[in-house]
Write a structure and sequence with these properties.
By secondary structure, the protein is mainly α. 63% of the residues lie in helices and 6% in strands. The protein contains six helices and three strands, in the order αβααββααα. It has a three-stranded antiparallel β-sheet. It is elongated and about 65 Å long.
Length: 143
């Protein structure tokens, strides 16, 4: 070796750099509360989601191949970060399969039909609030 540094020192530095990158990614994924518990809106890693739901990691990865709606963010090295919407979907799939007796294919069909119906849904209350707000703004402009 002509680098002047022993092999162990170079390896330790690289491992330290990776650990620092992992910590930074974890901080970006979601801030932890004081008790080690993440905030409700924080992203979860596959290990955290596995621990929280009791599902093995390989099942979560399998479900990603079977349910196109389940697409966690993937960072360098295929590190998965599940959004709150992904977590809710995992819990729903788990409930449908375990408690309600659906098969994988049945859950796929259910989610696909909900996706088609859900695309046209509009919150009428929200539309009315926006309409009223615009009407109030027009009245103020005219006065």
């Amino acid at each position: 070796m002509t680098s002047g540094a022993p092999d162990g020192a170079a390896g330790d530095k690289a491992a330290g750099d990776r650990a620092a990158g992992d910590r930074a990614a974890a901080e970006k994924a979601g801030a932890e509360k004081a008790g080690g518990e993440k905030a409700a809106g924080a992203f979860r890693t596959i290990g955290e989601l596995s621990r929280d739901t009791g599902l093995p990691q390989h099942i979560l990865r399998y479900w990603e191949t079977r349910f196109p709606q389940l697409r966690p963010l993937q960072r360098a090295g295929n590190r998965r970060y599940y959004r709150p919407a992904d977590i809710a979907l995992v819990l729903r799939i788990q409930s449908l399969l375990a408690s309600e007796g659906y098969t994988i294919r049945g859950v796929q069909k259910l989610l696909a039909t909900e996706g088609k119906r859900g695309a046209g849904k509009v919150d009428l209350g929200l539309v009315q609030k926006v309409r009223d707000s615009l009407a109030d703004g027009l009245e103020q402009d005219e006065a």
